[in-house]
Write a structure and sequence with these properties.
Helix content is about 45%, strand content about 20%. With about 160 residues, it is an alpha/beta fold. About 45% of the residues are buried. The chain binds riboflavin.
Length: about 160
């Protein structure tokens, strides 16, 4: 019988504090992601009073606001939510790249988990699918990743 140590997180969010940063651009869809994320956090034990939602102009600003939120030192994890819909300009790719790079770098730098719930869609149909219909709700998935990561960090600290 192998005696390897396996460290993993569980989906329990009670007593943990979460920041959600959400883009107002494409808010019709982004608000569904926020609702999904809040619902997932609360259903896994987080209190409403331990969740703060910061709305920023667009996905480009997500890393900036996430960093500012983290500077309050009051949060266990941050969830970044945004909706990019491909248009006829190259902006989609530039903003998607900045948001991805920025959020990823924060996760490495801040010492708390930062999860990525930015959906990149070629069409309105895809945005509908990913914000609460056929393809689920990517806000829920980002919240679940944040819950698991907070628990994993706790487990690593105690291993
Ligand atoms: N922000 C988004 O979150 N999703 C988008 O689909 C989106 N499309 C944009 C398209 C153009 C042409 C521009 C100029 C901005 C767009 N933004 C979008 C906003 C961007 O993330 C940022 O808020 C603004 O560029 C201000 O810094």
């Amino acid at each position: 019988m192998s005696s390897v140590t396996v460290v993993e997180g569980v989906f329990k969010a009670d007593g943990k504090r979460f920041g959600i940063v959400a883009s107002r651009w494409n808010s019709f869809f982004a608000d569904r992601l926020v609702e999904g994320a809040v619902d997932a956090l609360v259903r896994h034990g987080a209190s409403d009073s331990d969740i703060v939602v910061a709305k920023c102009p667009g996905s480009f600003e997500l890393p900036q606001v996430a960093k500012r939120l983290a500077m309050t030192k009051k949060l266990d994890a941050i969830i970044c939510l945004g909706v990019l819909i491909r248009g006829s300009t190259p902006h989609f790719d530039y903003i998607a790249a900045e948001a991805t790079k920025g959020v990823g770098a924060l996760g490495l730098d801040l010492g708390i988990p930062v999860s990525f719930g930015v959906i990149t869609c070629d069409s309105l149909d895809q945005a509908v699918e990913r914000s609460g219909s056929k393809a689920g709700n990517k806000g829920v998935e980002a919240a679940m990743a944040a819950i698991e990561m907070v628990s994993l960090y706790d487990a690593l600290d105690n291993s």
